[in-house]
Every structure is written in structure tokens, then in C-alpha cells.
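Quick one: C-alpha cells for this chain, please?
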Amino acid sequence: MKNILLVLALIFNTAFLFAQTCGNDSVVIRHFYRIDDQGDQTNTVYTDSFDLSSGTRYSSQLQIINSIPGNPVFTQGTFIRKLISYNALMDTTEYLELQGTGSGFINKNKIEFTYTPDERPLTKVQSIWNGTSWSISKSEVWTYNSSDLILNYLVSDASGNISQNNYFYTGLQQTSIQFQNYSSGSWVNEEQYLITYDAADMRDSLYVQRWDIDLGIWIDSLQAEYDTVKYAAKFMLSLNPGDTGYYYIDSLNNIISHDYESYSNGSSRSQTWDYFNNHLKITRDNYRIDYHDFRSYQYNAYGFLTGESNNSGSSISSGSSGTTYDDFSNPVSSGGSYSSMAGGSSSTNTNYYYASSDQISLSYIPGENLLRTLCQGDSVLAYALVAGGCGPYTYLWSPSTGLSSDTIANPMVSTDNQIQYSITVVDSIGNTASSFFNIQPYEILSVQFDSTLCSGCPVVLRATSGYANYQWYKNDTLIYNENQETYTATESGIYTVRVNSYCDMVSEPIVLTLTGLTRIQGYVYLDMDSDCVYNNFDRNLSAQGITYSY
């Protein structure tokens, strides 16, 4: 039984026509694949082309369910363009967001940075475009002493909120931090950290004090010993009756771990942070109530997100997912699985591809994602995910075996054998990209025989083992009563074998030229003296009453 996946190539060419531009475009293709416990497969291809001149986004969506494609859906809109500027030391000096209009871009948001000569932050100013000029929404300023130790951190926003942190030292040792808010023309104390050291000048304890407005004095709130293994001080907070919270403050006075347990509703939450490129990033978030949700995050040395994973579950269902990112924190791939205790499960996978006018992206949907089971003899349409460069494209497939054409993007591919195809695409200005397309039937039926036997002699044909019933054919005519995996061919002809399993398969034809069986007359003897000559020393086996068939 042969299945043919019929899809008009026009659909695909139309769907990605806007991706074949020679302009200032950027293209993102997202391929989503889902399979459930019934074997139903869904492929959805999302393509977004971003016109970097007009700010217009062109999008298409095509869904293929169990090899049957739907009609592509086209939409159009605008997008936000993000630009980052760096200094010679690769520090970010400006982050700019521009809103596309369809005819260009207008300003939206901006963040500007300045640094000390040794790359410590000096200022960070966030602004919003009000239609005619930039309006500051938040401003941060750092001040340092001659030893490059921070003395003051000042932050203000457009709502009039102003606060600052003041840092105090004895020599190079930080002894306290004061947190203040600006109100009614003066600074008001809020909280302060007091840091103590032991006789060996090792950090010992941390006191958290609150400012008593009525008394005008600092009141001790919390105290914890400094853990020289965790390099942090652990605090416990008593919240609602029976509820407790724990958190660790590190040597830079940042919370790096927080645990909360509620005995009133049985919930708990645990969060952990770590440093990447001198910035705190959350690495773990674990929440539990009548279900649990665990998330973890991975970063590179520069603090860019490289991966995240999630596991969740309850008494009725469970699931997991994960995503990987490139060096710019763009998603590369993601996957997940879901199962229900009542029955039913599914798994998903998504891949992302990026291209521009001077770069082509080429990949193919795997053939096994298009049909539930690829049987020997089935045909599928190779579905190209191609974008970028400057069209039109030219294609070259190798080898050409089993292809309806080796020079088009989406040829029909026969699955008679396991083959890996290499595809190269070239655009009109010389950009090139390569990819592979693998096709492998779920089962392969083949016939083997010994080709070293004498010319014209009978041949034992041996089919792939493991099937219950074989049907041998000579010149497309059934050979009756031959239903084993081997068959001895004595006559010339074209031989095939058929089996019926999950796939109804017919082997590739074997062409034999034989002379048929020949009767040989003579005696059979045992060469006792090993001289290869019959004499009186040898034993005539035929005379012993032994008969042989040959």
C-alpha cells in the first residue's frame, strides 16, 4: 500500500515569497511539531519577515495535520526594532527601541549607560518618547571613592520617587549601608545593614536595623552569623502564624536564596540566584502547593540566558518543557511533554531558524513528521524551510535516486530505501546554504542471494526475516505454496516477494538468468587416500545402499 502526500508546491512558494527579498529584511521561521498518544501529527510553520526599512512585519502560518495541509494564513503588522550600541570594551552604551509604522520607525524607549574607566556603572537613564522629545522615566547614578568602592547609589523616577543607598567603610572594609527615601525636602532613614568582622578581619555577622520615626533611632530588627561556606548570612522571618521565610544575603548584600513555607495552605517556594558577569540572575524557582512547578535557568559567562527547563505536576497530570538559546538569547529549540492520569499524552518540539538578506537559512521538516508511519514504497513531499538571501533560489539534490526532481525545493521523495539526501541552495547573488533530508521506511523488505555461485546455477533467494507469511512472485505471477522466507529459483525471470504486516511491502525486483536444474549421473565415493582419483583404496558409498539427492 503506497501513501502519497499530495501538496501543491505553489502553496509553499507563495507562503515564503516574501522571505525571498533582496532588501533590508530579517526572517524568522518557527517549526512546531506535535504528536499525541493516538499517533496524530501536527506540523505548524510560522514565518515572520521583518522589513527593516518600513517597520512592517509579514507573517504566514501553515498547518499540516497527518500529512494533510491546510490553507496558509497571511497577516501583516508592525514590530518593535531593538538596537544596542557598545563601547570599545563591549559595554552597552545605549539600548534603543523603535516602533515600526509601516513607512518607517519612530522612537519608543531608550536606556543610556555610562561607565568608569574600569567599567563600573556610572549612570543608567531610561527614557520614553513623548512624541516630540525624550522624557526621563528612571535615572540611576553611582558614586565611588578613590579606591573604586561605591559610596552612593541614587535612583529616581518620573513619579517623583527618589531613594539612595549610602555605603560606609573602615579602610577597605564595608561597615554599613544606609537606605533612605527623599520626602518633603529631606532624606528619611528606612533601613540599614551593620556588618561586623572577627579578630582575623573575616566577615562575621550582619545586623538589619529599622529606623524608628517616632524615636528617631535605629532599632535592631534581625541578626545573623555570616556563613563562611555559603558566603552569606541566613535570616528567618516569621510571617503569618505558622508561616516562615528564610533568605540568604551575600557579601555584596544581595539576596541569593529565598525559601518560604506556609503551614496554613501547605504551600512553599524556594528561589536561588547566582552571579553572571557581575549581575544576579535567578537560577532556580521551585513552587509547591496542590501541584508543583520547578523551573531552572542557565546562563553563559556574560549573563545571557542559554537554557531553561520546567517540570510541573499534580495528582491529575504532569508535564515538562525546555528551551535552548543562542549567544544573543534568541530561542533555538524547545520541547515538551504532557500526560494525564486519566489517559492521553502528547509531546511537542519547536525549532527556530534565522536569516537575513545576506544569509540563507535552509532546513527540512523530517519525513517521519509528515506521515504516521512511512512504509516502503510511500512517497512524501520534502517540505523546505528556506528564507533569507536574494531570490530566486536554485536547488541541487544529491543523490537523485527516488526523487521526482533534483532541482526543485519540494520534490516528491520515494521511501523505497533508507537514503540521506544532501541539498544545496544558491540565491541570485551567490549566497549559499546546505542541509540534509533523511528518509527511512518504518520497515524495509529486501531479498538477498549469493552472487558468487556458478553462472546459471539455481539460486536461493532469502527475504528479510521476521514475518509470518511470504508471497513469492515470478514475473508478477504468484508462485503457489511458497510462503517461507527463502525460495530456490531454478528458472530465469524477475522475482519479488510480498509480505503483509503493519506495512504492505513488495521487495525490489531481482532479475535472474538461470539454465535450470541439470541431472548429473555417476557415483559417490569417499576418497580414502586423498589423491582425488577413484581407486581400490576408496569406498563406493553408492554400493553401501546410501542414496543422495543432488
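The two ends are 40 Å apart (CA to CA).
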